[in-house]
Amino acid sequence: MESLLDKKIYMNQKFEFETLKVLSKELSIKPYLYELDENNILKNEKNIEKFYNEIRTLWLQKNFETQVELYKSPVQYTLEDRLKFNEYEYERIINKNGLENYYHEDLKNYYKKTFFYNSGMGAISNTMYIIKNLFSKSIKGIKDIGYFETKNFFETIKRLNISTSENGSINEFVDFYFFEPIQYNFQQLSTNYIETIDRIKNNNYILFIIIDISLFGDVFPFNDLRNKYKDSPNIIFIIVESLLKLNQQGLELTNAGRATWYIPKENSKLYESICKLAKIISDTNGSHLLDFNSRVLNNHNFLFNEDYASTILSNNKDFYNEIKNISNQVIKRVIHRNNDKDSQLTMPFIFIKLQINTEKFCEIFLAYIRFEFSNLGLSVDVRDSFGFRNLSVQYFVDRASGEAIFKIAIGHFKGFKYWALLNVIKKTSSYKNVKEFEKQFEVDK
Question: Structure pTM?
């Protein structure tokens, strides 16, 4: 690495280190304080990873120790101080989740209510079950989605008389609209949700608008959207989100999801019905966020994520801009999207379409990255998901096309690994043909 780049990496490492020190202080834990060396960016990188992993371990241990004596059905009048956060007599049926206090807000025109679930998909499924139970008839909606699990869910609820159509030129009456601002799939299609809402809203009927912001967190400009339709008393907004990806400072403490409802105050009876249904449904299907998992998230650092999410999105965009024009004997093209109407909404990962779109070739490409990283004394994390403090890679098979696609998820800081991977991707242009590349990094697959 060049000395100027070394200095830049060191400054980024120092900033990340100081950020982690602040986090540990706000969590009231005391991890070992590793030292940084301006002349050893490799050691720094490893120490920073040790540091945040130790923060994670200590925080989980701290919360476990406070709960280890609690039974799932606690003995009455014992350990009452530990039951003040979540109110329950039997843990699967929590009367009130303590995390709701973080999201409580008195709004002029809306009732706001947040429900917590054991996953992002739990938030989505419970939201749809609530909506369906508000109607005595079959309901229909339109969707702009790409995430395969959400697609599978909508397939499974057809038998419950919930029908959906892909968005397009639909102008007929619908009960709900479910969208991802950018669709979570290989194509990463941008969703023009404003145009769709304007087309389908109806002043005579309730319209539920469900927005999955798991890819963007609090960066999504929801207040702007809500204000645009503040004079539409029949529009009910619901924000659904996996709290695992961008809300936990990259530490992946627990699966969790939330659904936050915004119900115009003209609909007070509907608000009451929604609150009752939400509890009945989650009590019945056991989708509550359990006590320990809730306590693990009981800190503002793990629930309000705009700064963290913004950094993740920005770092991925910066990385993409460095490699977006690469097309060579190994890499066919690089894919990363913004929302067409809002450039700050950008994907938290990058897709690379390789010249040979098989799982075997993805393994070869991964072997290449590992080889180059090992020459620098580095390792690369191969894992699903995104939003971690440092970068990770993985590949997947696109269900629509059957093509294997390589994925890079840039992390919270631009450390040694960031610049190393950037150099590794650019270095693919030095290979004269794909056979040469295959032969050098051949793996059994």
Answer: 0.93
